[in-house]
Amino acid sequence: MRIGQAVDIHQLCNGRDLILGGVKIEHEKGLLGHSDADVLTHAIMESVLGALALGDLGKHFPDTDPKYKGVSSMILLEHVYHLMDEKGYKIGNIDSTILAEKPKMAPYIQKMRENIASILHCNVDKISIKATRGEKLGFVGNEEGILSMAVCLLEEK
């Protein structure tokens, strides 16, 4: 077994879609980034890469490479899945948390879980996604950004 953990943060801004777990969420702001800035999927990918000791997202998908401009993080997650598969591992489980003041995440979480489980070729019950607010404290509470954390357990196939 191998364990990985990660944190990812993106700034909220006007003129972008808010994408989390591959789900477009209705909100007046989106996340700023080179790709679609899916902070949840980024944290999950980095936890898997960390468990495999393969570095971070910037090593695999540099923001200086134009081919990743606006790319869906679901495509990047598929690449991470293939790295994990090639190394002889599968998902044991993933536990993740989204910290966002707004919008409410509850209506979207099941679809996020399904999207991620589908790409990682595992049962949806191996993917946990929770959400909490910033309680008006810090950059999350002031609606300046969204933070996600993830921990994964990988098992040998």
What does this protein structure show overall?
This protein is an alpha+beta fold. The chain has one domain: 2-C-methyl-D-erythritol 2,4-cyclodiphosphate synthase (60s Ribosomal Protein L30, Chain: A), CATH 3.30.1330. Helix content is 31%, strand content 31%. It is built from 5 helices and 7 strands. The protein has helices at residues 39-51, 57-60, 73-86, 106-119, 138-141; strands at residues 2-13, 18-20, 23-25, 30-31, 89-99, 127-132, 145-156. A 5-stranded mixed beta sheet has the order 4-1-7-5-6. A two-stranded antiparallel sheet has the order 2-3. Helix 1 packs parallel to helix 3. The protein starts with a strand and ends with a strand. The model has no long low-confidence stretch (mean pLDDT 97).
* Succession of helices and strands: EEEEHHHEHEHE
CATH topology: the name is: 60s Ribosomal Protein L30, Chain: A
Overall mean pLDDT: 97
Shape: globular
